[in-house]
Amino acid sequence: MNSDTELAPAVRSILEAARERSGGDAVIDVDARSLSDALADAEAEGRVPVIAEVKPTSPTAEGTRDDDPVELARAMVDGGAAAISVLTEPTHFGGSPDALTRIREAVDVPVLRKDFVLDEPGMDVVAADLLLVIVRFVDDLEALVAAARERGFQPLVEVHDRAELEAALAAGAEIIGVNNRDLARLEVDLETFESVAPHAPADVTLIAESGVSSPADVRRMRKAGADALLVGSAVMDHGAGDSDVTENTRRLTRAESAESTTEETT
């Protein structure tokens, strides 16, 4: 794990809070919904595979959304989301394990627990179909990936550069997210995914994370090799509390079909 001094202050604060939180009382056993099946279903139906994120707020958001998390998740599924990501970090993102449980009971797509899981006890907090594991924050990545699978989770292993990609592959990761946000400066650059993706094996599911805010961004990431996109802020639109989450999701899941329609009419 890299030194905290290399991280943005907001990220260091998030990690400090994560270390102070306790894990669950018992080892979780999950009967997970398949992400690969969900992505394939989206492709077959002509939708861009989007993992839409229920994120009440964040250190980089312009505001907070106080909507019922379940209603937000349902709206995202109505907009064509192939899966739902739920922030369970309470201090900086306004999330909770309870919100994830309620969402998973209410929708029929896979649900990702997005949090800052640093060790095995941190996994045993709430059942989800996928679990985020961030390479930069983990000491023994291979052991944590294996522990996630033993519980039934599908581990989504997050990387930011080629060295982290190699570490993820060495640990046996099959679902890899490339975060376009630099956790040292909190800056976003879509070229990050474009530079990392060519080095991933074809049999790995690649997810572009952060910075996707428009249909053009969707098409750019898909052209670069993204099998799916994890999108939070563009769907939640924290700056507009009454923004239509269903429509925000739909404009991204239909980005490729919308391009085809435009080309046909020009």
In DSSP terms (H or I, runs of 4 or more residues), the helix count works out at: 12
Instruction: Provide mean pLDDT, rounded.
Output: 91
CATH topology: TIM Barrel
What separation lies between the terminal Cα atoms?
Answer: 51 Å
CATH architecture: Alpha-Beta Barrel
- Helicity level: 25-40%
pLDDT < 50 runs, ≥5 residues: none
Q: Please identify the structural class as seen in this structure.
A: alpha/beta
Residues in β-strands, percent: 5-15%
The biggest sheet, with number of strands, parallel, antiparallel or mixed sense and barrel status, is: 8 strands, parallel, barrel
The CATH class label is Alpha Beta
Jot down its keywords.
single chain; decarboxylase; eight-stranded parallel beta barrel; globular; TIM Barrel; lyase; alpha/beta; 266 residues
Describe the protein's architecture and organization.
Residues 237-266 are annotated as: Disordered. Residues 15-239 form the Indole-3-glycerol phosphate synthase domain. GO terms for molecular function: indole-3-glycerol-phosphate synthase activity; phosphoribosylanthranilate isomerase activity. Its EC number is 4.1.1.48. The longest helix is centred in the first third of the chain and has 12 residues, at 9-20. Helix content is 39%, strand content 15%. It is globular, with a radius of gyration of 17 Å. The protein has helices at residues 9-20, 35-44, 69-78, 90-93, 97-106, 141-150, 162-170, 191-196, 215-223, 233-236, 245-253, 255-265, and strands at 50-54, 83-87, 111-114, 130-134, 154-159, 175-179, 205-209, 228-231. The chain has an eight-stranded parallel β-barrel with strand order 1-2-3-4-5-6-7-8, surrounded by seven helices. It has one domain: TIM Barrel, CATH 3.20.20. The protein is built from twelve helices and eight strands. The relative contact order is 0.17. The protein is an alpha/beta fold and 266 residues long. Helix 7 links the parallel strand 5 (154-159) and strand 6.
